[in-house]
Amino acid sequence: MSLVQIRRIAIQLDEIFHEGGEPRKVPHRRGAIAMVCKNPYAGRYVEDIMPLIEALNPHGLAMAKKLLAAMQARPDEIEAYGKGAIIGTAGEVEHGAVWHPAGGYAMREALGGTKAIVPSTKKVGVAGTRIDIPVHHVNAAYVRSHFDAIEVGVADGPRPDEAVFILAMTIGARVHARAGGLQTSEIKGDDGLR
């Protein structure tokens, strides 16, 4: 039996035209996908949790592709990304850490080999818990105009023996970004930072 038993997948999409300033002709588009699945390690301590990373790898790639399709976006249109996990109360926060490689590498592959590390967060919570998924530029983490967060949650998950694994992507900078810092036109693309 597979370590990953999916109960549901939820997708949320958001278009922001303005936040008090002049409305944009093209909105800032954001999306997130959440996979609710059984936590195979819930209710007990398991020393070796690495098999779950391998089992999650293909799901991370499938989720990234599904989110791109829902956003009606090409990989080169995605400018910022992030990931996260909510672990049900019979699990532990370390069970969310398996999503670092499984979700991050999969999303970077789906987007054509982006340079910047995928920012992440995780926590333990009850059904309906929401989490802020941090996002930053896909090729240069220091681009301030793309620092943001997307709040994500699933109304009936995670149940105590479940986990919710999340990917998030955005098209464009924050709608009225004006906090200075490295500009997208200044990205060198060497180290994932600048």
TrEMBL record:
A Pfam family found in this protein is AA_synth
Q: Give the superkingdom in one word.
A: Bacteria
What name does the UniProt record give this protein?
Amino acid synthesis
